[in-house]
Amino acid sequence: MDPLQNPSSRPLSAGRSSASTPLMEVQIYRPSPYLALAILVVPVVAALAGAAISLNATGAIPAWLPFILLIWLPGLPLVWMTMQSVRTSSYGIAAGLPWRTWDDIPWSLVERAEQRGVMLRITGSDGHKLALAPILLRDGKRLKRQLVMRLPTQVLAGALVQEAQQFIGGGVFTTAEGGLSGTLRAQPQKVWRAALVGGMLVALACAALALLELPLGPAIPLAVAAVVIAGAAVRALIWTSQEILLNEKGISVIWRLTGRSQEMLWTSVDLVEHASWETLLRLRGKQRLRCAGPALMSRSERDLMRAFLHEYCGNRDVPIVHRKWLI
């Protein structure tokens, strides 16, 4: 299925869907563990450096040197300000510090989003302002991509506009009403297929080696087990060779190695199920469709695939549920 482009679309003019939020409503971006490590290590490194300099210059460590750690105390308020967390949802974006309430801005009220150095500044039409530092957050780059996909291009400024252009180059647009348009072509990353081919070759080599080097008794079961593993690798290779097409009408899956294809309209989807870590999706309605999940795609395809699912399933109140047993 390769539908016609919507001529009324314009690049990333608005967006209600979540580009980088996993298949759930709320995503929280917490301070990076490297930031916490730096807070703990810097005072110790400063004290050790002072001790080394003193030993080299005078041959002794001054008794007052341990108190140099107290210099860190005036900087604690600044450290506290860097411990910011960010929360995104279908409603809006919020930021909060430890022991303080969340300060949020609805997506519909965002008037300007710009990047100045490492800081992202978001201004709402109601006067609210948020200042974020994605570099200090875990998955901060994902947060920036979510902002790019969520917000109209006219409110973006600075480096965010350049990131928006990357999505435009991928052929994904949003309509004036806020829906996603265009066609996303996603395929599991080549590294998965390379790993499966390698596993298949190793299994076949083990089967041949067992038959050649071992007595017939133990060789046969080992060779059979290796052939079974190789067969499973071949089947998985066929699975990862699929190409997934998503657009405003529905989703299509094409298996390149077999030539088989299947498609399903969004209006026919009553339930979306995903396996652990989103490696597999199953869409259910009058028909069923199984395909590779966002986790197997490249980062940009993963984000856009989630955006389509949120826009045309989540926003239609189609349940999106996690099935641990789904494989």
Describe the structure in brief.
This protein is an alpha+beta fold and 327 residues long. The protein is built from 7 helices and 18 strands.
Quick tags:
alpha+beta, 18 strands, flat, disordered N terminus, four-stranded antiparallel β-sheet
Question: How would you describe the overall organization of this protein?
Answer:
The chain is an alpha+beta fold and 327 residues long. The chain folds into four domains: 103 residues, no CATH class; 48 residues, no CATH class; 51 residues; 81 residues, Pleckstrin-homology domain (PH domain)/Phosphotyrosine-binding domain (PTB) (PH-domain like, Roll). Helix content is 36%, strand content 24%. The protein is built from seven helices and 18 strands. Strands 1-2-3-4 form a four-stranded antiparallel sheet, with no helix packed on it. A four-stranded mixed sheet has the order 7-6-5-8. Strand 2 and strand 3 form a beta hairpin. Helix 3 packs across helix 4. The radius of gyration is 26 Å and the shape is flat. The N terminus is likely disordered.
